[in-house]
Design goal:
single chain, Phosphatase 2c, domain 1, 2 domains, 11 helices, 15 strands, disordered N terminus
């Protein structure tokens, strides 16, 4: 067979786990075009990947059963068996659940992407490929796959090891925090974030993404649960955010793809709530979509305060979701506050009882009104909100807290 880098003369009848040792990992490139295969091989070998090559869908399946790769780059359009069919065949075998599949396509229609993700694909890369972006995505999905395997391994190890849990969680938190975006890197916008986990690691997550010169995305999410496994899932959210928050996708398309990916990644009973805001600086408007998450608050430049009122299904639980969507015009000086339920449910009432989200929303509105009177910067405003919550709770919170603020 042309284009194969391993011999298949002695392919065993049973699946083999034989694998060569490579510093960066083993990548299977599947494409019927020899030039594309050669280009991919050159790019990957320069970065210390072991490369396997297949020129057809059936050849790819044979190789995977002989030597399961760490990741597959799979051409969508091939004769006889296209990339979608290959993906369907592989995902039907649970032995290959953790192998990321990145589709290679000369077109990038939303329909193809949705179909690919529904079949279990991990990402799409448009040809001709940008080699820097390609390698970045490969590394992201390899790390995600490693994290999922590590999650399973850690979950089994934690049984009966409660005394060691805090130490392990502390290590995870360091990795979790390293995934979170520093707002100061974006000079075109004024943004600030406070992230406060109730345990050493938690399920709250945020990201700020520059979609283009004039477009930004703000995501705040909360994965149900607060154990070690939940903390690892924030790494998955980071990888998915990188894949699905971009200039070409609407907020609806972003959440459809997030939901499809989380359906395949989360275990039964797990889910995530999320709110995503896409800001167009050129159009002076924001698109907001909500999936079962606390609604953001807008503090307008005229001093008034506006709560959005959007409802939606959570992510990762239902195959088809309905989410609340709203487009709002913004003016210079308007501010957006996004947060997780640890904030609004964390304010204690006069009797010291917490958990009332409506009461917490009113308390937050009072805090923002005080911020307006004191003319705090956006960074000082976010700090003030979190510090006041800690003050009212005597420094002890029962749930993770994320507060993200942005000034337009």
């Amino acid at each position: 067979m042309t284009g194969i880098t391993i011999a298949l003369r002695d392919v065993p009848s049973e699946k083999s786990s034989a694998k060569s040792i490579s510093p960066a990992g083993t990548i299977l490139v599947v494409d019927d075009d020899a030039t594309t295969r050669k280009i991919m091989e050159t790019i990957l070998k320069q970065r210390d990947f072991e490369v396997l090559l297949a020129s057809s869908g059936q050849e790819a399946i044979d190789i995977v059963y002989y030597q399961c790769p760490d990741l597959i780059l799979l051409d969508c359009s091939m004769p006889e068996m296209d990339g979608f069919d290959v993906c369907r065949r592989l995902r039907a075998d649970s032995d290959f659940d953790d192998v990321p599949i990145i589709f290679l396509t000369a077109k990038s229609s939303t329909e193809d992407k949705v179909r690919g993700f529904e079949l279990g694909g991990s990402d799409f890369v448009t040809k001709p490929v940008d080699k820097v972006a390609l390698v970045a995505r490969i590394n992201t999905h390899l790390e995600l796959a490693r994290g999922r395997r590590q999650l399973r391994k850690q979950t089994s190890m934690l049984e009966g090891l409660v005394e060691n849990q805090l130490e392990r969680l502390s290590q995870v938190r360091n990795g979790q925090v390293s995934l979170l975006t520093d707002p100061s890197q974006f000079r075109q916008i004024k943004a600030a974030v406070r992230f406060l986990p109730a345990l050493e690691a938690g399920g709250d997550f945020y990201d700020i993404v520059q979609l283009s010169d004039n477009d930004f995305g703000f995501l705040v999410a909360d994965v149900a649960g607060h154990d070690l496994g939940t903390a690892y899932l924030t790494g998955a959210l980071k990888a998915l955010t990188v894949s699905f928050t971009n200039e070409t996708l609407s907020v609806v398309e972003t959440f459809v793809m997030l939901n499809n990916a989380l359906l395949k990644f989360l275990d039964t009973g797990q889910y995530a709530t999320a709110c995503y805001v896409k800001y167009s600086k050129a159009n002076s408007e924001i698109d907001i979509i909500n999936a079962g998450h606390p609604n953001p608050l807008l503090h307008l430049s005229d001093g008034s305060i506006y709560y959005t009122d959007l409802v939606g299904d959570v992510l990762g639980m239902f195959e088809t979701i309905t989410c609340g969507i709203q487009r709002i015009k913004v003016n210079p000086g308007d501010r957006l506050y996004m947060f997780t339920d640890g904030l609004t449910e964390g304010y204690p009432n006069a009797a010291g009882k917490t958990g009332n989200r409506s009461f917490g929303a009113r308390r937050l509105q009072e805090q923002v009104s005080l911020i307006n009177q004191r003319q705090f910067s956006i960074t000082r405003s976010v700090d003030y909100i979190v510090d006041e919550l800690l003050n009212e709770c005597s420094g002890t919170i029962e749930d993770d807290v994320v507060v993200l603020g942005a000034e337009f």
